[in-house]
Task: structure prediction
Amino acid sequence: MTDKTLSPKALRQRDQYRWSALGFIAPGVLIVAVLLYLPLLWTTFLSLTEYNGLGDPEWTGLANYVEMFDDPGFIGSVLNTLLWVGGTLLVPVGIGLGVALLTWNLKGGTWLRLPFLIPYALSGIGVGVIWSFILSGDGALDQALAAFGIADTPRWLVDAPLNTVVMILATAWQGVGVNALLFTIGLQSIPREPLEAARMDGANGMRLFRSILWPMLRPLTAVVVGLSIVASLKTFDIVQGMTKGGPGRDSETLALTMYKETFVNSEYGLGSAIAVFLTVVTLIASILYLRQQLSSKHGV
Result:
């Protein structure tokens, strides 16, 4: 229906609805613009300047990006971040799925999952403090091993890449519970009829998982894996709490490198360049993953 076919009253009502809709949308758009887009634009601008937080930024073009890629410490941060992505997908997501499969159909399964969920209430720094107490030199783990006659223990938080591996395990301790909870919700939403039909056909154990449970969990798994990828790319707090990126820069992640360059070294331009790089990598990883999931869905 065109404007010419509408009565004057209908046109006025349409305009009123349009302005009302804009009035509801405007606050949200303004908040997103102020809190997301403007800081992103400012960070992108700073990445093209030399700025120490005082005075005016000095335009340097792509110099910060050249310096960033020439820095061996930055390359190490990229490799550590990739290790975090792989470890976060394999350990907390995999164990969370296993816990959900073992407890979702058990009487009292909620109580069995509860101990796994409690650590999720802790902050990343809190988890770092707890595991630093356990893994530090002559810490709780070393003393426990010494009680069994094992004196020559690894330097858990000193030797690379062992320090990154044990921090991934600490993160898994925190994240297994929420992944198990999400997978349990997905399992409980599966209709009983296909499960009963599969069991009548003799499907149990791994065969039931491959033929019924896993295909029906794929939409939820896509969400869990996507969230894990984004979270691992932004890893900061637990590394800062346990090793501060050390020794040297051996366990730094991209987020921690960005923090140090910006707020410790007062290299706001270089820190902003790392922030832009991390943002682009996160967006590309998210888009590629979502496209792969959508293509798989349409291909089924």
Remarks:
- The longest strand covers residues 49-50.
